[in-house]
Amino acid sequence: MPSSARKVSAYFIVKDAARAIDFYKQAFGATEIFRMTDPSDGRIGHAELRFGETLMMLADEYPDFGALSPDTIGGSPVTFHVDTGSTDAAVAQALAAGATLLRPAADQSFGERVAQVLDPYGHRWMLSQTIEQVAPEEMQRRWNDGTSV
Fold this sequence. Notes:
alpha/beta
C-alpha cells in the first residue's frame, strides 16, 4: 500500500513561544518564516522556522486544544537530531544561547561525533557531525564486539 505521507515536520509547543523563537535563532541558526499572534492575548498561535532544509512549526500552549509543552507534561520522549558541520561549535553556540548540556561531544563507533543538549523549553537536541562513513554491517559488528558507545 503506498504511503500518503509526503513529509514529516516537527510542531513544537512551548511556554513563551516568542522567546523560544529567539532562542532557536541564536542556538541553531533558525530563520523565522512568519508568525501569527493571537489578537485576544498575544500568544503565538502558529509560527514557522527553517533549520537548513527543515521546516519546524511552533506555538504557545493552548491547553483547551490539548497543545501542551514538555514543561507542562513533565518532559518529552522525543529527541531532535541536527546534522552539523561541527558538533563542538554547535554545542558551544547552543550553550551560549541558554541550552543545558546533557551529554558532552564524543566520537561514536557509528561514525558520528555526537552531543546532546536540552533547550530552555524542554526539548532535547542531538547535535551530530559525520566523522567517518560506516556501513550498517560494520556498525552492527562494532556493536556486537562491544566497541559501540
